[in-house]
Amino acid sequence: MFPQALTLWLLPLLLGSVHGIRIEQSQEFPLGSEIENMALRPCGSVLANVYTTPTIYEVPVRPNASPKLIATFQNTHGVSSIAYSSTPDVYFVITGNFSFQTFSPTPKSYAIHRLSFDKDDKAVTKELARLDDVEQPNGMIHVPGTPYVLITDCRAGFVFKFNTETLELTKYFDHPLLKPNGTFILFGVNGIKLSRGYLYFSNTNQELVARIKASGTEPTLTGNPEIVVTGAPVDDFIVNDHNGDLFLAENGDVNALTFLGKNDGTTPEILIGGPNTTNLLFPTAAIWAKGAEGRLLIVSNSGDGNQFVSGNFTDGGRLNFVHVGGKV
User: Is the pTM of this model over 0.90?
Assistant: First the structure.
């Protein structure tokens, strides 16, 4: 709850070729903020969307930076997703209602919006369309050079494609590896990325990351994905586009930022956090800092996950600026 910069040095014995990982933190978001996803502005600052309130914050990438509230959406409970567009400093955002007490969404409550900035750098939002056919939108990415975004439905287990110009929503990909298999918490396909000619996706319930050859422009995607990570309750992740390495935000009982090199099998190693630690409680997303791919990660975490169920809020979440050093 207080500004702090945390520097953590990990021994080479634990991290193989890594000599040290340095972590700096932003100031805390308001209590009860479940930071769900992030995007970068052209200046390099972070846009972070909150799922427990209908808000987006902007945070500079520097130690002790204060989150600045830049947008609040009306008639909705939270912001589940954010993605880039083909236009610089214009983004797509999904809002909707999700209960952390029942771990279920309100049917037909989700909508997609455009977020831009005026000449005074004030956020401007406009609703584009309802997403009534998507049970619970989660991950969202822009398909470069197109008007399309891909949206994961973690409850129904599909990937949808949305045309931001015609406002047409179509089912893009359906496969058993996208489906949830939980009994209470239904989180199937979650994070999603396009990298190195593949569509990568995480499935939190199935504890895997898989990939399939894709451009994102296909009318529908068919085929069988290749599983690249196993035994990992991954929320979101980032791919190093240069070499295919994966950095994974794992929550559940793991609570860690983990790493898997392209030649390291399918079991990731813990970089920060881990079971019974408090270094990185409830990590939710990871992106590269501007111009720093392979060197500086931005990892969001939301504090003790139990607070969202009980309603007794103890943490506000932070952004963690992780200097991964030689882990490239």
Answer: yes
**Strand order across the beta sheet in which 158-163 lies:** 137-142, 148-153, 158-163, 169-174
CA–CA gap between residue 193 and residue 201 (Å, rounded): 6
Give the residue among 240, 238, 230 at the shortest CA–CA distance from 257.
238
Assess whether pLDDT exceeds 80 at residue 13: no
- 227/209 Cα distance (integer angstroms): 6
Strands 68-72 and 296-301: unpaired
User: The tokens of 167 are what?
Assistant: 């406002």
Within 13 A of 225's CA, how many CA atoms are on the CB side? 23
Coil/strand/helix, residue 309: helix
Residue 211 near residue 225, CB atoms below 8 Å: yes
Provide mean pLDDT across the span 89-101: 97
Structure confidence by residue, pLDDT tens digits, 46-68:
999 999 999 999 999 999 999 99
